[in-house]
Structures are given as structure tokens and as C-alpha cells.
Amino acid sequence: MLYAILCYHDEDFTSSWTSEQDAAVMKKLAVVQEGLAKQGRLGPVARLLPTTSATTLRKDDPPVVLDGPYAETKEQLLGFYIVDCANLDAALDVARDLGAANPGGAYEIRPVGLFNPGSTG
Amino acid sequence: MTDTAWIDAALTSARPQAVGALLRYFRDLDTAEEAFQNACLRALKSWPQNGPPRDPAAWLIMVGRNVAIDDLRRSRRQAPLPEDDEAISDLDDAEEQLAERLDGSHYRDDILRLLFICCHPELPATQQIALALRIVSGLSVKQIARAFLVSEAAMEQRITRAKARVTEAGVPFETPGAVERSERLAAVAAMIYLIFNEGYSADGDSAGTRRSLCEEAIRLARLLLRLFQSEPEIMGLTALLLLQHARAAARFDGSGRLVLLDDQDRSLWNQKMIAEGLALIDKAMRHRRSGPYQIQAAIAALHARAARPEDTDWAQIDLLYGTLEIMQPSPVVRLNRAVAVSKVRGAQAALEMIEPLGERLSNYFHFFGVRGAFLMQLGRNDEARVAFDRAIALANTPAEAAHIRMHLDRLMRDSAPRGSKISKK
Questions:
Q1: Phi (first) and psi of residue A120, to 5 degrees
Q2: Which of B9, B27, B294, B335 could form a disulfide bond with B236, CB atoms 3.0-4.6 angstroms apart?
């Protein structure tokens, strides 16, 4: 079974880290990741850019584009995509296509800062 | 991260919200700061034992408020207390309630107010920066003094004076209307940019301590953007700071000398910051509400996108400076534009463009540096030398002077008689 592990933290707090503190945290995480990678159990790992870079597409009819992360609490996270796009407009186009196929709810679009494609099995 | 480092980061990140809320409550800056300070002392005792509170800002506001009310009670028993004066005993419940209330609109204006009082128009730029670093960022007077290269006593005095002036002017406590809020936002954005520039203009020697000012400015810009997520100019400001700071490691050589953009080792540029900056400017542009920060960020983005100096899209940069000139006519913008023009249409066209600026920029280091470089490209070496001499006389930092001296040395070598030329293999 593949498991997704989603990372949550207080962004005010993490963005108060100095670059040295940030690097130290990443280094400790890398040790755990390397262990998993050696066993062929590590899939894609992504560190998202801060929520200030987020845009949300509400899948209403017509869809509405909002600045900022998805902030409602009445809906739940059900899945995610990693898509290669030239820019935000292109990413929004993809989200609109997906939204047309499956209306209702919302997509939060976040640029990926660090990406390791990993490999499992 | 060690235990204390964790707590430090938590206190720093909670500070703007907590001091902002305490200021709204007590309506006095000194009381608010002292209350926060006392709350921090208790946090240092309590957090390592009891673990982190769910919402550190709410915890600090609560504890700070209770301690300050106790102090007020003790110091003036007869005096009436501020409204809503009940000290809250059950911290857990209260924390939850308060956190809920803070989720509302209040805290956004609390933080904006706290930032805004630091940029009172009567305060000179250096005092605005010092005050913001003290009140909002919570840097110690010693740290700020070090960044400004003045004594601690002088900085203490500067901050005290600035605070007195702010208090005298009166702190605006009413909830701002839409127009006022956007005016405040613009003033605060300008101040954050000042903080950044203070760090950015540091020379190689002091780059370490002052570079932290750049990082602090970025943190404040991100904070502001999280509060006002749909403001393209705040996206532009944050992008601009990130894209400029991304080059920090490449801007000085081993001996602290300034390295110009064209000569920088681009592999030292911080790609993570560049990615974030590019994403933000991309997002801002969708709003089609351009502004000076967005334009400047777009220019910085074009530099960041060029893998080699010769890949730079100078024609686009020329156009962007043209737009910026319309928004903010200034001889300095024109001077920057001329550099782009020199790459697109040659040094002669660029030189003609800056000649009319001579009078207004007669005391501006960069004017003579740029003019000298254009003249040198045109082979007018004697005139170039005069311009460079003037630039050295006007240099603001040793790094700037050293950079110009390098040009002068080259001119000297080029014009020296053949026999005395240093032989090169």
C-alpha cells in the first residue's frame, strides 16, 4: 500500500527560521528519507513554496480564482496532482480542465519549491 | 534545533500579533512591550516543562495581559482599569476562546497598526527602520546598533526619541476604512523596503550583520502578504526582495569587493528564493494592476531568468524601466534605464540619455560610475577618468570606491606607453 504523508506546520513559525535553522531541519529529514530510498520505498517528496504563493480555484460554475491557500474547513483533502506547467496561468488551465471533469469543491495551486521524484518498488 | 532555539523562533514569530493585540488593549506602546516581555519570560519557564501551547500568540497575549493588569492593580489601586478587565484564570479554555476571536479580522489590523506607527511621516527613514526593528521584529538595541554601525547608547537614544514622537502624534486605534487601510499598507510596504535596502547597501565587511536585515525585511513582507493576500503590489514587493536577496552570496568577492551583476558567479544565486520570487511575480501580474514594486520585481526576474549575462533580455528591461519612469519619474530610474539602453542600442545612445541628468545627480556616486563606464566603452578615456575620479570622491562604501579604482587601473594600463605595460602571457 502506498501512503501519502502530508506535512502541516505553523508557517509564521517556520518562516521565522534562519537559513541555517532551515538547512539543519532539512538535513535531519534527509537522513530519514535516504533510509527509505535505499529500501526502494520512497516515492515523490515535495516541499511547497509558502502559502503566499498559493492560488485557489473554486470549482463553481463558472470557476472562481482566489489569491491565497484553500482556507475552508468544511471540505477535506482527497488527493493531489503534480503537473509541470510553464506558469500559473497554465496551471490554472489544467485545474479548470480537471474541474470541468469533476465539478464541486476546490483546487489549491501551489508552486513546488523542492522536488525529488523518488522511486518505489 | 535546540529547545531554546525553538522557543526563540516561536517568540519571534508570535511577536507582531501579540504586541499588536496588547497595544490595542492597553493603548500604550511601552505597556504593550513590557507586557509582551513579561509574557516571554513566563514562556521561557513554562514551555520547556509543559510543552508548546497550541497557539503561542494567543498564550502570550493572554499571559501578557494578565501580568500587566496585575501590575496596574498594584501600582495604582484606585485607578480605573481598562475595559474587559477580568484576568482569566483557566488558561486552556481562555486560549481557545481568544484564538477564535483572533481568527477574525482583528489581528490583521493589529499587526498593520503596529507596523504603521513605525512609519510616521515625521520620522526620518533611519528612525522608522530602527523603530520597526525594535518594536515589530524585537531585535535588541545592541543588535540594531551593530547593524547601523553606531554605539548602543546612540541607538537607544534614537529609538527613545522616535517612540516619543510616535506617542505624541497619537496612535490610530479606530478600525481603518478601505482607503485608509490601503494608505497604511503602502506606507508599511515602503518601510519594509527601507529595511531591506539598509541591509542590501551594506558592503562586504559588514554584510554578515546587515544581511540579516534583508532576511528580516523578507519575513515582514511575507507576513504582510499573508494578511493581504490579494494585493499585487505586496506580492511584487515580496518578489522583489526575494529576487534581489537571492544574489547575496555572489555580490561580494573573497576580499569583500563588490561584484557587478555581469561578473557574478550565477551558480551562487539562491534558486529557492528565485523560484519563490518568480512564482509571486507571476501571480501578481495576473491582476493587471501594475505598480512600481511589480515592475522592479519583473526586472529582477529577467535577470534571475538569464543563465548567463548575455542571455539577459535587455530590450524588455528597457521597456519595463520606461513604464517605471512613467509611474515614478526620477533621475535614478532614468540612469538605470540607460544601462539597459547601452546594452540594446550602445553606449553613445545611453550617454546622450543621461547627459541631462548631470545637474540633478551631481552628488550621486552611481551617476559618475555609470557615466565613466559609458565613456570608457566609447574609448573616451580622459573623460572617463574624470568621471571615475568624481565617483571615488562620492563613494558611500569602501567597496564602491574599490570597484571604481579597478576601472581606473584598467584605464591606466590601457593608456600607458607600450614599454611600461605589464606583460601578460
A1: -115, 155
A2: B294
